[in-house]
């Protein structure tokens, strides 16, 4: 009896230890960056564990005459917000069309399959072609060019998620709405959208975060006026010197939107990622 009793206890201890190790591995980079943001360059490079916190790095990042961080932060917010809105609109309409319109089965399968293939393509491989095209039509170094690029990158992921949610909407509700005389816009507004709000929230949050963190495409398509936060952080690494502490402060500030979104709607993300996995 003693051996049988101790076995679950040991298994629980091992499981908790492994979870603790995983937590440490995940949080350590964040804690290191957070600590570096409040250190001076000398304290950081000398590896001092105990130090007097300073806000000089944040002041340099936010208020220095040579820093464009506030403009970059605003640019990121504009591009991420507008591109996320477009992604949600297009993906919802496309998912409704694929699931509720009378398309041949191969059309939906081809569309979703192509979305997966496109999503697997590294964004950096598209940046050069987009730069050439946008320069010809006058969209290089513009918000519109960045918004279109980010919308294109995040649309496949959102399409797959919304396709699952729209598929799970009972057909009886749509048929009842049609019997009552509702057209497609009315069905979308009063039936589909209220029922797929968790999917919209999950897809929207992920699209916003992916857009916020995009670096390679923005670096290629933008200049100083339209550069976003990831590009601004990269500028602290120059050829002859790297401002580690200011980079850490800028990185810590850039986490705020994503952290707020995750805290507010984390349950929607879990449901959006697991929907369709268990029936």
From TrEMBL:
Membrane-spanning ranges: 13-35, 42-65, 77-98, 110-131, 143-166, 187-212, 243-265
One Pfam assignment: BPD_transp_1
Taxonomy, superkingdom: Bacteria
Membrane-topology descriptor: Multi-pass membrane protein
Keyword entries, A-Z: Cell membrane, Membrane, Transmembrane, Transmembrane helix, Transport
ABC transmembrane type-1 domain segment(s): 73-265
Keyword Transcription regulation: no
Coiled coil: none
Subcellular location: Cell membrane
Family note: Belongs to the binding-protein-dependent transport system permease family.
Protein name: Carbohydrate ABC transporter permease
Source organism per UniProt: Rhizobium mayense
């Amino acid at each position: 009896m003693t051996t049988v009793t101790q076995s679950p206890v040991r298994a629980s201890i091992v499981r908790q230890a492994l979870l603790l190790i995983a937590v440490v591995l995940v949080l350590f980079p964040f804690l290191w960056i957070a600590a570096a943001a409040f250190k001076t360059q000398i304290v950081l490079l000398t590896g001092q564990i105990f130090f007097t916190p300073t806000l000089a790095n944040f002041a340099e990042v936010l208020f220095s005459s040579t820093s464009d961080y506030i403009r970059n932060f605003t640019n990121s917010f504009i591009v991420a917000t507008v591109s996320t809105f477009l992604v949600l609109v297009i993906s919802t309409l496309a998912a409704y069309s694929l699931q509720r319109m009378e398309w041949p089965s191969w059309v939906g399968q081809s569309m979703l399959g192509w979305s997966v293939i496109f999503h697997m393509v590294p964004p950096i491989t598209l940046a050069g072609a987009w730069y050439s095209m946008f320069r010809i039509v006058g969209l290089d170094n513009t918000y519109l060019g960045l918004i279109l690029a980010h919308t294109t990158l995040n649309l496949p992921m959102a399409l797959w998620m919304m396709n699952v949610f729209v598929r799970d909407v009972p057909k009886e509700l749509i048929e009842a709405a049609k019997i009552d005389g509702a057209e497609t816009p009315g069905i979308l507004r009063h039936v589909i959208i209220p029922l797929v709000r968790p999917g919209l929230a999950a897809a929207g949050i992920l699209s916003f975060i992916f857009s916020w963190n995009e670096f390679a495409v923005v670096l290629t398509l933008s200049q100083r006026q339209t550069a976003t936060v990831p590009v601004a952080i990269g500028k602290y690494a120059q050829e002859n010197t790297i401002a580690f502490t200011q980079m850490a402060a800028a990185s810590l500030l850039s986490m705020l939107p994503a952290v707020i979104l995750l805290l507010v709607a984390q349950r929607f993300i879990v449901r959006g990622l697991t929907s369709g996995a268990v029936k």
